[in-house]
Amino acid sequence: MFTESRALLPDTVNFAYIPKAELRIHAESQDTSKRRENSPDYAAFGSQGASTSSVGAAADDDEHVLVLDLQENSRGKKSSNPGFAHGLPPALTPEATKKLINKRNERFIQAVNELLEATSEHDDPVTLLQAAARDHIPIDPSSRTFNKLSQSDSKGNQRIVPDPADRPAVDAVIEEIEEQEWYQDQIVDKRIVEAKDGHIEEIDPPLSETIAKALRDSRKITSLYTHQVAAIRALSQGKHVIVSTSTASGKSVIYQALAQDQRLALEQLLYTCPGLEHIKVYNYDGDTPQELRAGIRESASVIFTNFDMLHASILPHEDLWRRFLKNLKLVAVDELHYYSNIFGSATIAKPKQHMQSIFGIEDVEEVTEDGAPSGRKDYLVWNPPLIDPMDETSGRRGSLTEATRLMRFLMARGIRVILFCKIRKSCELAMKALRSELAADGRQDILDRVMAYRGGYSQHDRRKIEAEAFSGNLLGIVATNALELGVDIGVLDAVIMLGFPMGGLASFRQQADQFPIDQHYVKNPSELFDKPMNDLVIDLDSKVMLEAHLQCAAHEMPLMGDDAVYFGPYMKEICDTRLTKDKDGWCVFSETS
């Protein structure tokens, strides 16, 4: 009976096994007086959600319970556990209860009538309904038969995830989405960016045969794109260079300036380059053990670090780093657009101006003409449907539920997906929802190939996830913008954005190069593609910000008047009033500054 109801009303009736730990049965867990009004309650996820790196981890060890749940009006008080909420039913007055029962009856009658109208005279509607219901029989992941059943559909046919290399064409996938029973015209806009051919150029003078051979052997690179040649030429002329081209356009070949994956790529390049085997390459970041740091300072030829480490570890101990800094020839800053306001933006609108402002230099060569090829990109703007199509006041379904359902659909067809979430909590909620939904679907095979990537993981867990992602073994990644900032995963097939990125249009376009968006852009989708990106803002005239920088700079090394070229015209005023001068006139930091 319940499976038939779910077959009739798949978006209203939820009949599935869920982990017992996620079943909220205690009244005190729903006591809203102990938390801020309208603030999501994440208590059901607790610390276990924060420490789980794989959705499929320990799924077989969880005890599951069978739940029948009816989705109702989303107006008024929101669920306290977005994405997957099972708890006490709301307290209703007798009048409200009657109204709810009548509403459910009307919805059921309409669904039955629609089934009868759609059934041909040669078919029996009861038989059709019973056949459809078999696809909705819940599978208990705790049972011994789970592994066997999870590999078969309701008809006993084996369910195997296709090889991603054999995935269907995008057009076929979209057509199949539009044929699903749960599809209710969620796609409100489609855009296609056609493929673009690459443009290569001979570099003059040519690279040395040693370097050329190393590129061939380690990276399979036999030619360079026009923007790579332009940047290398400018660097060889001693110019400052900024390169602003599309994601995955080969900028790292120029700079090799991204930790972990790029460090390994550079090491491979050096290893295959005779005469450069002695070059030592290290990461120097928050994960670097204290006992190794002194050795890195003394022996490193190249380090991969970040601005936090420059600020907190390297520059305050300039005397320890003096040998390295005196011999420094090249500084490569990856994802320069990230440094705007305090921190945070995305793809640059005026790259040359931005670099000049950040570094206080004028002679900057700008490379923006992208010579790399790119494949066709299909953009879909997805608007969650109304909970009750007969009631426009019912509100729309949660974007998290829509995103995870779409992600499961794509992964089941061998399409590798990344789901971008705005914040860490959204990432955890999406992971929990995917785990519950895949377990309910009996898809342990998919569940084991999904992981999260966000801040807060241990070094070991992050490296493991990165290795899995780069190798192409994963089907799905749920990530915050930790993966937006340059980690090049070229094997991805689809990107889903859970809500509009906080970084704005530029962040949307960057994540898309690697679909649910806020209602403004649902109604105005052309702005996503045609509206100019905002300029990145750096307030060099803020005395509050400048004083903080000068205090740090004076702590690292005493300042003189000539340093105004880097700090601007307000430097002298702040040094005279907020810093201390020694007997030789140098501005130095002191505790009383």
Structural features:
single chain; alpha/beta; Rossmann fold; 4-stranded parallel β-sheet; 24 helices; 16 strands; 11% strand
Question: What is this entry, summarized?
Answer:
The chain is an alpha/beta fold. It contains 24 helices and 16 strands.
Largest sheet: 4 strands, parallel
Please give the CATH architecture of the domain at 200-367.
3-Layer(aba) Sandwich
Shape: elongated
Helix content: 25-40%
Distance between the termini: 76 Å
CATH domain class of the domain at 200-367: Alpha Beta
Which structural category do the helix and sheet elements fall into? alpha/beta
Q: How big a fraction of the residues is strand? A: 5-15%
Order of strands, widest sheet = 12-13-11-14
- CATH homologous superfamily title of the domain at 200-367: P-loop containing nucleotide triphosphate hydrolases
Integer average pLDDT: 76
pLDDT < 50 stretches? 25-61, 74-85, 256-260, 341-347, 508-517
Can you count the helices? 24
Give the beta-strand count: 16
- CATH topology-level name of the domain at 200-367: Rossmann fold
Rg, nearest Å: 28 Å
